[in-house]
Structure formats: C-alpha cells, structure tokens
Amino acid sequence: xxxxxxxxxxxxxxxxxxxxxxxxxxxxxxxxxxxxxxxxxxxxxxxxxxxxxxxxxxxxxxxxxxxxxxxxxxxxxxxxxxxxxxxxxxxxxxxxxxxxxxxxxxxxxxxxxxxxxxxxxxxxxxxx
Length: 128
Known about the structure:
It contains four helices and five strands; from the N terminus they run E-E-H-E-H-E-H-E-H. By secondary structure, the protein is an alpha/beta fold. The strands form two sheets. Strands 3-4-5 form a three-stranded parallel β-sheet, with helices on both faces. The chain has a two-stranded antiparallel ribbon with strand order 1-2. Strand 1 (6-12) and strand 2 (15-21) form a beta hairpin. The radius of gyration is 14 Å and the shape is globular.
C-alpha cells in the first residue's frame, strides 16, 4: 500500500534537482497542485505492460496541464515481452510527438540517467 510520496536530491551537470515521486492513485491528486509551485518539469512514468492504466496516466496529465512546463514520458519495462508500442501509448495518453517518449527499463541506471538528462535539457530550453 502506498502511504506517501518519494523524495530525492540529485546534483546533475551543475543543477541541484529535487525529485518528487507521486503515487498514481487518485487519492493523492490533491498533493500534485501543491508540488507545482516550484516544479520546472515532469517525468511521467508509465508501465508498458499495463494498457489499462493509460486512462489514469491521462488524468494525471490533465492535472499538469494548467502548469506550463516540460514533460517527458518514460515508458517502463521495455525489457518485457508484449508491451505497448509508441503509437498506442501516445493515443491512449492523448499526447503528440512534441512530448518526448522514451522506452526504458527503470532497473538500468543508464536509461534513468537518459530520461533525467532529457528533462534537464528541456527545462533549460523551455520558454517560460
């Protein structure tokens, strides 16, 4: 059972990054707007083996919509068979090609680093 958020600090290429991990359950939705006061970007982590959860991920994107900031999508569990393809994910989430989508395995440090670096690059180039 999820009882709270995850929190972490990361020093990355001259940036001090504070990471917040929010649970996907709707009961935590009230926390999300409060976190956006100082948020500069979002990594949306989805499970490619569970298409039934795309509608919930789409709801979470709607929570972010009022806050203009970069977002990248990390499609986790690329190493497992039978996962969704990019078109199915983008259609299910209602997102276009301008939002980066990366297929990753969260257990591979290099994949996670790539996603974080992509978000940092987007943040530094974003016209706030």
